């Protein structure tokens, strides 16, 4: 189903069975809750006032059966709704993950974190809000009917008061949506920045920039705190207003009932019923008055999810690959504006093609484990070509040095060099490297460039290498360079000739 502005409607549609049965059972539960004070009033008038033990036993048994029914209905209904909420949140997380895992889609890490957790949960809570609203309406209708049977003015207080309260509170919904969206946006930026800082902590320390980075994070964190406080303040005022109005309505019903009892217009049992219903009505009143705020939060989170799911990935070059697979040749590619789209074209699972992504992934284990085939005769040459021999030599355990999940304890440059060594060890017929040296220093980058050339393109080699990069050090060792702009080949030649004659190439590459 295509993404549109009806993400909440889609959630309801694909969970309609559980939501319908859960709503029915929650409605039964709330209806039984409303009947409890009515039944107690009947017991007072027909059994206690008349001192009829048989009637007392009958009505107390009925009250016990009512409690059993409301308990079973609530447990069963709540179980159905919790399953629906969990399943829907899981589906939304999978959809967000599928979108952000597309290499052509640019999404901040912090946005992914908040949207796939907080927003997915808040959106799925709609499946609980509607049954609760339905139950509140059932309880209110039964209570209003009971009050009407006792006294028409008491019933009118409920029927007139509720619509007035709901209309007034609904006016606050747009402000709640705006502030919740603002809070989540800033929280996403803060989480994204924190992730970047943790990932790049060692390089930041190396260049002495950790204090500036920490200062920037403090600024974003304070901004996030301010947005959170504003959203909380709005929700707090809304909740306080709804609770106050609910309490005032319940108190008004109780006071009016007390007056009617003193003037003899209602019996003692009816007074007990009215007081009980007035106390009970605080719950459905609170639900009805808070519902606009709940739905506003769900809509705000749904809008953020839709913004991610509705993103159109950067366009891929039309037709066949503009760069044919190379054999025995080292080709450089400068792709604008999005090199990821080009790289994705080669990632088709072919056994002859290996794509090494820009962001390398290491797994927990040893350096030897991450290199996969770390026992062959080519290992020393590969480690030298990728400059990964320095990474191995930096640790007393050498190849047996333990690596944390995703290489968290290594610098970005160390991770890139180990990932490059792993790709070179595989010796694919065509190796596609996407910006493999962005985290290393200039001296190391030149050494890696020469190492790739010597290892894969010696005399008589039939191996092909595609370097998708803007690094002049890497482009300088290629046989030719192809410049792509919006999927079209706009220039070809050697790095030296393009640098000398093409102003746009110089702007993109020379730095």
From TrEMBL:
<dbReference type="InterPro" id="IPR027417">
    <property type="entry name" value="P-loop_NTPase"/>
</dbReference>
<protein>
    <submittedName>
        <fullName>ABC transporter ATP-binding protein/permease</fullName>
    </submittedName>
</protein>
<dbReference type="InterPro" id="IPR017871">
    <property type="entry name" value="ABC_transporter-like_CS"/>
</dbReference>
<dbReference type="InterPro" id="IPR011527">
    <property type="entry name" value="ABC1_TM_dom"/>
</dbReference>
<dbReference type="Pfam" id="PF00664">
    <property type="entry name" value="ABC_membrane"/>
</dbReference>
<feature type="domain" description="ABC transmembrane type-1">
    <location>
        <begin position="22"/>
        <end position="289"/>
    </location>
</feature>
<feature type="transmembrane region" description="Helical">
    <location>
        <begin position="136"/>
        <end position="169"/>
    </location>
</feature>
<dbReference type="InterPro" id="IPR036640">
    <property type="entry name" value="ABC1_TM_sf"/>
</dbReference>
<feature type="transmembrane region" description="Helical">
    <location>
        <begin position="56"/>
        <end position="74"/>
    </location>
</feature>
<dbReference type="Pfam" id="PF00005">
    <property type="entry name" value="ABC_tran"/>
</dbReference>
<dbReference type="InterPro" id="IPR003439">
    <property type="entry name" value="ABC_transporter-like_ATP-bd"/>
</dbReference>
<feature type="transmembrane region" description="Helical">
    <location>
        <begin position="20"/>
        <end position="44"/>
    </location>
</feature>
<feature type="domain" description="ABC transporter">
    <location>
        <begin position="240"/>
        <end position="511"/>
    </location>
</feature>
<keyword id="KW-0067">ATP-binding</keyword>
<dbReference type="GO" id="GO:0005524">
    <property type="term" value="F:ATP binding"/>
</dbReference>
<keyword id="KW-0812">Transmembrane</keyword>
<keyword id="KW-0472">Membrane</keyword>
<keyword id="KW-0547">Nucleotide-binding</keyword>
<keyword id="KW-1133">Transmembrane helix</keyword>
<dbReference type="InterPro" id="IPR039421">
    <property type="entry name" value="Type_1_exporter"/>
</dbReference>
């Amino acid at each position: 189903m295509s993404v549109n502005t009806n993400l909440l409607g889609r959630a309801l549609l694909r969970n309609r069975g559980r939501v319908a049965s859960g709503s029915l059972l929650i409605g039964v539960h709330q209806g039984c809750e409303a009947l409890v004070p009515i039944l107690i009033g009947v017991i007072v008038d027909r059994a206690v006032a008349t001192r009829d033990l048989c009637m007392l036993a009958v009505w107390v048994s009925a009250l016990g059966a009512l409690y059993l029914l409301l308990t079973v209905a609530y447990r069963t209904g709540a179980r159905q709704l919790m399953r629906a909420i969990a399943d829907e949140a899981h589906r939304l997380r999978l959809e967000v993950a599928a979108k952000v895992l597309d290499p052509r889609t640019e999404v901040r890490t912090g946005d992914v974190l908040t949207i796939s957790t907080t927003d997915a949960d808040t959106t799925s809570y709609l499946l609980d809000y509607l049954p609760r609203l339905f139950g509140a309406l059932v309880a209110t209708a039964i209570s209003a009917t009971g009050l009407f049977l006792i006294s028409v003015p008491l019933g009118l207080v409920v029927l007139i008061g509720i619509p007035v309260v709901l209309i007034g509170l609904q006016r606050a919904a747009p402000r709640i949506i705006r502030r919740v969206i603002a809070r989540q946006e800033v929280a996403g930026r803060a989480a994204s920045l924190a992730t970047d800082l943790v990932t790049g902590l060692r390089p930041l320390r190396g260049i002495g920039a950790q204090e500036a980075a920490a200062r920037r994070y403090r600024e974003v964190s304070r901004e996030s705190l301010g947005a959170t406080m504003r959203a909380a303040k709005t929700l707090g005022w809304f909740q306080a207003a709804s609770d106050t109005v609910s309490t005032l309505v319940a108190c008004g019903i109780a006071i009016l009932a007390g007056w009617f009892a003193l003037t003899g217009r209602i019996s003692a049992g009816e007074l007990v019923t009215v007081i009980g219903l007035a106390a009970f009505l605080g719950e459905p009143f609170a639900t009805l008055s808070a519902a606009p705020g709940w739905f506003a939060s769900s809509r705000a989170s749904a809008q953020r999810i839709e913004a991610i799911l509705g993103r159109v990935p950067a366009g891929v070059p039309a037709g066949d690959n503009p760069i044919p697979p190379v054999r025995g040749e080292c080709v450089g590619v400068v792709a604008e504006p999005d090199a990821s789209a080009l790289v994705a074209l080669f990632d088709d699972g072919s056994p002859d093609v290996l794509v090494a992504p820009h962001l390398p992934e290491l797994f927990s284990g040893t350096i030897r484990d991450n290199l996969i085939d770390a026992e062959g005769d080519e290992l020393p040459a590969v480690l030298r070509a990728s400059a990964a021999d320095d990474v191995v030599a930096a640790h007393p355990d050498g190849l047996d040095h333990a690596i944390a999940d995703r290489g968290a304890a290594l610098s970005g440059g160390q991770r890139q060099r180990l990932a490059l060594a792993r790709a070179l060890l595989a010796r694919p017929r065509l190796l596609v490297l996407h910006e493999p040296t962005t985290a290393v220093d200039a001296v190391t980058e030149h050494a890696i460039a020469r190492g790739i050339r010597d290892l894969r393109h010696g005399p008589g080699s039939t191996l092909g290498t595609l370097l998708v990069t803007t690094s002049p050090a890497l482009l300088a060792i290629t046989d030719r360079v192809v410049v792509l702009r919006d999927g079209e080949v706009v220039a070809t030649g050697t790095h030296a000739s393009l640098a000398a004659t093409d102003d746009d190439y110089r702007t993109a590459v020379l730095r």
